[in-house]
Each structure stands twice: as structure tokens, then as C-alpha cells.
């Protein structure tokens, strides 16, 4: 009998020990959410946002609901990020900066691998060619510099005379034409290889036209104005529609959805997002941001999620023109967030805290 009792006791002790090990293992074992930020799956689903005030880029994993990596070494005022089509490298332009260099980030390692010297500071906008072999960069010296993305060196420099101070650029799908917008209300075409002016400039009839979006076919451009959006038919090189959002709304930046059926417009003046149906050229929805100013928007590849850079509570005031309001926010520079919206319900489904002044980023590739 004593042997039986001892045997049972040893058995129970073994069971308890095994259970403890299993529980401890379950607690300490790494889960899928603990993947390294340089894991290809994590990189593919991550959002990369520049923190203009902090001089960093933050990698946000929406599955982990947090910033998983902060990339420094960029210098001052990172503003717009542009990646190569193969997702290998990220380039960062600047805003209100005197640093005449273009930082290059290796996306996998999260390190700045080069600072390319430029003529004037990289200013606001960049575009790659369809094959990713070249990157076009506007600078404060009123030139567009073309970067060979294989060597990360300047291949050529294109002077931009009309309009001076390019604020937004686009490259045609065939890589032959460079479109240049300025805040003065002018759209100009240049030969993307020689820099020669093509035809006459198009006067857009408004100001603050320093942001645009080109459709994939390359025949339609959407241009921001002081109070709305103008649609330019690039075949006839003429404005064909004007969409009024409102002077107090102060539209600033916008992005086409992946299917190009909608244009989401971030309005700095009243902290809203106007959703425009591109077929009818009408505003079909308006999203009111409850706690901050929408600074940019991007989408998941399937278009089901919208990722909005929210400048946070310090930007939660209304009816100030877009550029002065952005300048005021850069001075206040409180913490922001990445807000995730369901594009069908138009409801915010997540809000992830990030650094100060999150701006124009890179969005999930898978």
C-alpha cells in the first residue's frame, strides 16, 4: 500500500512539474506578434512615417499595435517618404530645412545607408519611374534632380524655370514627361530626360496648387487648390472639373484609393477628410476627425483600410488656412497617432500612438 501511495505521489509531482513547464513555456514563448521588425512579413505589413519634428522615421506594426522601430540619422525635418517599387529602399525629403542631402534608408535593416548631396535642400516631393531605376526630386534651388537608384548618385539636374519653386512633381507612366506644380497656380510639362519645356504652362486659376495625384493611366491629374480640387485632362492639358470643398476646410493633401474610385482629401482647416467619387467628381462622404488634424492618408493594398497621420490634440483647432496651421503645428509639435479606418464603414477601428508630427509615409505592400 505504501508503495502505491509513493508511486501516486511521484506521478502527481511529475504532472505538476510538467504542467508548470508548459505554462511557463506558454508565457515565455515568443508569439507571432513578437516578430523582429526586420522580418519580411513584418516589413510588408508595416507603415513607415516620418516624424518631422523629431527627425526620425517610425515603423509601425498594425498587428502589434505599436511602433516597433525608430530610424534616426536622417538629419532635420523629414517630410515625405518615397520607396522603390521593389520595397528595398526608402528616400526622405525635407521641409523647411537647410540640409542639402537626401537620406537613403535600407528598409530591411532600418538604417540610413547614404546621404546623397543635392543642389538645394530636398523639398516636399519625390517620384520614382515605373521601373524604379530613377527617382525625381524637387529642391529648394528650383531644380529637379534625378537620382540613379542603383548607385544612389545624381544622374542629371533639370532647371525648373516655369513655375519656379516646384511644389509637386509627377512622372508619366512611360517615363517621358515630368509634370511640375507650383503654389502659384501653374502646371508645366518638361521632357523628363532633357529638361526641355513642353508646350505652354497651364494656368490653374487658383493658388496653393502645390499638391497633386496622377492616375495610373497617366491621363488625369488631380490638383489641390485653395478651396478644393481641380481635375486636369492631361491629353488636352486643360482643367475639366472643379470640386469645391470650402475655403475654411483648407484642403491640403490627398491620395487616390488603390482602385482609383475615390480621392481622400485631408482638410487642415476643419480637421475633416473629404471623400470624392472620381467618376462623378462629387464629395460623397466627409469624416470628422475628433481629436486632431489629418496630415496624410494611405491605404492597404486591397483598399479595405485607410491609414491617416493624425497630428494629435495640439492640432485640434479649426478654420486656419492650411499652411499657417501646419506651421503652427510644427511649433507646438505634440504627439500624434496613426489612425486606421475601415473604408466601408468609414469608422476608426484603431489608433496607434506615434511620435511628433507624423507626415507622409510608406504603407503596407502586402
From TrEMBL:
Entry keyword set: Signal
Phylogenetic placement of the source organism: Bacteria, Bacillati, Actinomycetota, Actinomycetes, Mycobacteriales
Top-rank lineage group of the source organism: Bacteria
Entry cofactors: Cu cation
Official protein name in the record: YncE family protein
Organism of provenance: Antrihabitans cavernicola
Signal peptide: 1-34
InterPro entries: Host-pathogen_enzymatic-act, N2O_reductase_N, TAT_signal, WD40/YVTN_repeat-like_dom_sf
PANTHER family: DIHYDRO-HEME D1 DEHYDROGENASE, PROTEIN NIRF
